[in-house]
Amino acid sequence: MISQFFILSSKGDPLIYKDFRGDSGGRDVAELFYRKLTGLPGDESPVVMHHEGRHFIHIRHSGLYLVVTTSENVSPFGLLELLSRLSTLLGDYCGSLGEGTISRNVALVYELLDEVLDYGYVQTTSTEMLRNFIQTEAVVSKPFSLFDLSSVGLFGAETQQSKVAPSSAASRPVLSSRSDQSQKNEVFLDVVERLSVLLASNGSLLKVDVQGEIRLKSFLPSGSEMRIGLTEEFCVGKSELRGYGPGIRVDEVSFHSSVNLDEFESHRILRLQPPQGELTVMRYQLSDDLPSPLPFRLFPSVQWDRGSGRLQVYLKLRCDLPLKSQALNVRLHLPLPRGVISLSQELSSPEQKAELAEGALRWDLPRVQGGSQLSGLFQMDVPRTPGPPSHGLSTSAPPLGLGPASLSFELPRHTCSGLQVRFLRLSFRPCGNANPHKWVRHLSHSDAYVIRI
Amino acid sequence: MPYLGSEDVVKELKKALCNPHIQADRLRYRNVIQRVIRMSKLDQWGQAEVLNFLLRYQPRSEEELFDILNLLDSFLKSGSPGVVMGATKLFLILAKKFPHVQTDVLVRVKGPLLAACSSESRELCFVALCHVRQILHSLPGHFSSHYKKFFCSYSEPHYIKLQKVEVLCELVNDENVQQVLEELRGYCTDVSADFAQAAIFAIGSIARTYTDQCVQILTELLGLRQEHITTVVVQTFRDLVWLCPQCTEAVCQALPGCEENIQDSEGKQALIWLLGVHGERIPNAPYVLEDFVENVKSETFPAVKMELLTASLRLFLSRPAECQDMLGRLLYYCIEEEKDMAVRDRGLFYYRLLLVGIDEVKRILYSPKSDPTLGLLEDPAERPVNSWASDFNTLVPVYGKSRWATISKCQGAERCGPELPQTSSFAASGPLIPEENKERVQEVPDSGALMLVPNLQLTADYFEKTWLSLKVAHQQVLPWQGEFHPDTLQMALQVVNIQTIAMSRAGARPWKAYLSAQDDTGCLFLTELLLKPENSEMQISVKQNETRTETLNSFISVLETVIGTIEEIKS
């Protein structure tokens, strides 16, 4: 069980502190934690730290540190799960989780903590049960700004640049008890996939991994039943085969405990009665066998003259997405050898931008259309390093430090595994409200897309 | 009491755990437990708590055990990692007599663990990796086919990358060794020097099994002429040559040239050692050593100078003509001008040894050039699952066994008083037990939550009085073989907080010892060990000042384990 819980900002300022058992120190423990965290040697993990009979376990979320102390030998999985559930809950109640929202809603946060944890034991984290007890209202800072943009996982927005509401509608507090009839009943369903790829220098695929989640954020009153239909040819595991054609396959899948799987076997329909707030309906993983080609291929060509130190890197990036799709916010990050100070470039189109930042090349391409090829030529001078005697221009071994290229990008309206949500139907106890809005979007983004030179 | 979902559940659990009438009646207890397990209205926190409570439950029969496992099966598929891991731990502990069931459970938990290892949450990833390593200690081939999941990603924090590299080392097998080595080779040229060095050490440990490929990779790395890489490669070579003498030839061919790239103490020591021991096969060894000798005045590390002395003398024995002059100059410097006393002493010692005669030098300096058996000792043996099952899903795998031992020792030490100065008859004679055996012995005291108080101070008089006033609570005979060193036993008992009041000298007939221990509730255990004249068995008599069978049994098992360990070490 837990002795204390506190939240620190990214600079270590305590925002929230709660002591449950009164058996281990006082408020200075927050400062102690931050000092220990920043003073930790590089190879020790900060996740679980020990000091004078107390264990500190924390997660980082939206720049905040959520920390729990305990003196017992408890399950780390349980504690981490509790912390991430708390962060979701706080996000639901306050709108979003951040330094500003927490500071504005301190009373609400303490009330929540009182109900969730009693003397260090978890009572409940279910929003259903908590609604009956939480009285405080969330304080919302300002009316929604259409330019209020943040991370990729923002519900409802197509991309960061999208000007279509409801880009920030989803960040209003879900669980306000204001029975505002004019508030729209909305539900947001996101299929988000993270793609990790490793390509060798000869172009062969070493590793590909897709981690997907179907996330739901519901503003509907609880009790409404929802049916989510997935692609019918969706198979789990290697041996199953459904429908005709290659089908859409994942290796493993796991569901939230409240999902009813009666119709899953037959029609791939998930039924659930979601509580208000955020919920991860389904998680799935797929490795090694993507149905569609990889979104990007890089063809680098490196020429290095050891004698003069001139390094010329020609990068050709080919996008293998279908012609109508596009990739957004593509950024290529290429570490360069030590000592490179300046760089000259020739890029194939004007909206790209390349610059040298922190010893690496950063090439930004805001929008890449499917099927297109973009190239860039970069020239720089590498200072002489001790090495085998120079032979003049050689294309054999790239200089040390010319690291693997990593790409980061977003693929809107595209899932790497091919999984799609066919429909989202609500059977709804009518309370006189207008038809609820349903926003479904599919999104993939890169987790670690690495191409070796 | 944690909130467990509803009134009924709370009532049932209260009945099971607090009502002594129910606990006394096996059948009723069992029924209540079954009813608790069937409760389906618990949320994930309640489920985790229930699984934790059930750890205390002892099933009466095999049938009942499998019954419970079937009922709890659905928990293994839960969406909450806390519940899945809690269920795994429970299964592992309940099925401790059925290793095939344990293996089965570990196969089923592979999926959730691998998913956690690739989770977005770094913290969950790290904790899962620690548990993966724990499992690999018992089942090294368990994750071999999923080695790709443990490839490091560019953006991961350093501590996760280190864990993944360790895991990759441990899951190497014939099928994946090629790819794993290629991947590790990529990491060796990483921008971060720490990570590159960790990768090189990892290749070194894989090299014990797949020597040729690894030596080739390491040789290529030397060609890059990077300081931080070269020093670690040379250190790895030194360790490898000691454990796998078959690669000495390849290593000797790779060495020339790397002395220009080493600046740090560890690397220099390793290089000098290699040149000294295997100098005959390295053509320019004397010249490299000569370079070091020329610069010995500006050498800042005394350890390097010590190594240089030994290596020069060794090389002198095998290549006298080339080394005589250099050795002379080195000895002169060390004896006349060196300020560090240890170096000077060694120089003097070698000088005097040389004066005695070359045969004497050869006799003293002759040492084995390799010891492959050390590899077996260093590699931790596959531990049975039961040794760590109770640590699964706790903080122990996250800290690591050694760090956890330090932490729990600190917590124990905070409770006891000041230490008495040790009496001369029991002067500690240094660490007679190597570290790993100490660790093994330390694993013991978890049995049945028996906490023995450390640094118990019991005088001999008090012991004698109490001993004579109590009756023997338990007597047991253990088979024993041959001689042993009593100091080893004393050390081992010290580790588990059992104090030795008196012990006969080694070889005394009959051999006796008197031990005392106290647990944290104040219950005293007084023990007599008697080794029969024929040395064939050891008689243990235990007296307890309060009658408590459970703690007595726990104490007996602790004692048995310690004595068993001593037997093993001895043999």
TrEMBL record, chain A:
<dbReference type="GO" id="GO:0006895">
    <property type="term" value="P:Golgi to endosome transport"/>
</dbReference>
<dbReference type="GO" id="GO:0006622">
    <property type="term" value="P:protein targeting to lysosome"/>
</dbReference>
<dbReference type="GO" id="GO:0005802">
    <property type="term" value="C:trans-Golgi network"/>
</dbReference>
<protein>
    <recommendedName>
        <fullName>AP-4 complex subunit mu-1</fullName>
    </recommendedName>
</protein>
<dbReference type="GO" id="GO:0005769">
    <property type="term" value="C:early endosome"/>
</dbReference>
<keyword id="KW-0653">Protein transport</keyword>
<dbReference type="InterPro" id="IPR018240">
    <property type="entry name" value="Clathrin_mu_CS"/>
</dbReference>
<comment type="function">
    <text>Component of the adaptor protein complex 4 (AP-4). Adaptor protein complexes are vesicle coat components involved both in vesicle formation and cargo selection. They control the vesicular transport of proteins in different trafficking pathways. AP-4 forms a non clathrin-associated coat on vesicles departing the trans-Golgi network (TGN) and may be involved in the targeting of proteins from the trans-Golgi network (TGN) to the endosomal-lysosomal system.</text>
</comment>
<dbReference type="GO" id="GO:0090160">
    <property type="term" value="P:Golgi to lysosome transport"/>
</dbReference>
<dbReference type="Pfam" id="PF01217">
    <property type="entry name" value="Clat_adaptor_s"/>
</dbReference>
<keyword id="KW-0813">Transport</keyword>
<comment type="subunit">
    <text>Adaptor protein complex 4 (AP-4) is a heterotetramer composed of two large adaptins (epsilon-type subunit AP4E1 and beta-type subunit AP4B1), a medium adaptin (mu-type subunit AP4M1) and a small adaptin (sigma-type AP4S1). Interacts with tyrosine-based sorting signals on the cytoplasmic tail of cargo proteins such as APP, ATG9A, LAMP2 and NAGPA. Interacts with the C-terminal domain of GRID2. Interacts with GRIA1 and GRIA2; the interaction is indirect via CACNG3.</text>
</comment>
<dbReference type="Pfam" id="PF00928">
    <property type="entry name" value="Adap_comp_sub"/>
</dbReference>
<dbReference type="GO" id="GO:0030124">
    <property type="term" value="C:AP-4 adaptor complex"/>
</dbReference>
<comment type="similarity">
    <text>Belongs to the adaptor complexes medium subunit family.</text>
</comment>
<keyword id="KW-0472">Membrane</keyword>
<keyword id="KW-0333">Golgi apparatus</keyword>
<dbReference type="GO" id="GO:0030131">
    <property type="term" value="C:clathrin adaptor complex"/>
</dbReference>
<dbReference type="InterPro" id="IPR028565">
    <property type="entry name" value="MHD"/>
</dbReference>
<dbReference type="GO" id="GO:0019904">
    <property type="term" value="F:protein domain specific binding"/>
</dbReference>
<dbReference type="InterPro" id="IPR036168">
    <property type="entry name" value="AP2_Mu_C_sf"/>
</dbReference>
<dbReference type="InterPro" id="IPR001392">
    <property type="entry name" value="Clathrin_mu"/>
</dbReference>
Automatic annotation (TrEMBL), chain B:
<dbReference type="GO" id="GO:0006886">
    <property type="term" value="P:intracellular protein transport"/>
</dbReference>
<dbReference type="GO" id="GO:0030131">
    <property type="term" value="C:clathrin adaptor complex"/>
</dbReference>
<dbReference type="InterPro" id="IPR016024">
    <property type="entry name" value="ARM-type_fold"/>
</dbReference>
<dbReference type="Pfam" id="PF09066">
    <property type="entry name" value="B2-adapt-app_C"/>
</dbReference>
<feature type="domain" description="Beta-adaptin appendage C-terminal subdomain">
    <location>
        <begin position="452"/>
        <end position="564"/>
    </location>
</feature>
<dbReference type="InterPro" id="IPR002553">
    <property type="entry name" value="Clathrin/coatomer_adapt-like_N"/>
</dbReference>
<dbReference type="InterPro" id="IPR011989">
    <property type="entry name" value="ARM-like"/>
</dbReference>
<dbReference type="GO" id="GO:0016192">
    <property type="term" value="P:vesicle-mediated transport"/>
</dbReference>
<comment type="function">
    <text>Component of the adaptor protein complex 4 (AP-4). Adaptor protein complexes are vesicle coat components involved both in vesicle formation and cargo selection. They control the vesicular transport of proteins in different trafficking pathways. AP-4 forms a non clathrin-associated coat on vesicles departing the trans-Golgi network (TGN) and may be involved in the targeting of proteins from the trans-Golgi network (TGN) to the endosomal-lysosomal system.</text>
</comment>
<comment type="subunit">
    <text>Adaptor protein complex 4 (AP-4) is a heterotetramer composed of two large adaptins (epsilon-type subunit AP4E1 and beta-type subunit AP4B1), a medium adaptin (mu-type subunit AP4M1) and a small adaptin (sigma-type AP4S1). Interacts with TEPSIN; this interaction requires the presence of a functional AP-4 complex. Interacts with GRIA2; probably indirect it mediates the somatodendritic localization of GRIA2 in neurons.</text>
</comment>
<dbReference type="GO" id="GO:0006605">
    <property type="term" value="P:protein targeting"/>
</dbReference>
<dbReference type="InterPro" id="IPR026739">
    <property type="entry name" value="AP_beta"/>
</dbReference>
<dbReference type="InterPro" id="IPR012295">
    <property type="entry name" value="TBP_dom_sf"/>
</dbReference>
<keyword id="KW-0472">Membrane</keyword>
<keyword id="KW-0653">Protein transport</keyword>
<keyword id="KW-0813">Transport</keyword>
<dbReference type="Pfam" id="PF01602">
    <property type="entry name" value="Adaptin_N"/>
</dbReference>
<dbReference type="InterPro" id="IPR015151">
    <property type="entry name" value="B-adaptin_app_sub_C"/>
</dbReference>
<comment type="similarity">
    <text>Belongs to the adaptor complexes large subunit family.</text>
</comment>
<keyword id="KW-0333">Golgi apparatus</keyword>
<dbReference type="GO" id="GO:0030276">
    <property type="term" value="F:clathrin binding"/>
</dbReference>
<protein>
    <recommendedName>
        <fullName>AP complex subunit beta</fullName>
    </recommendedName>
</protein>
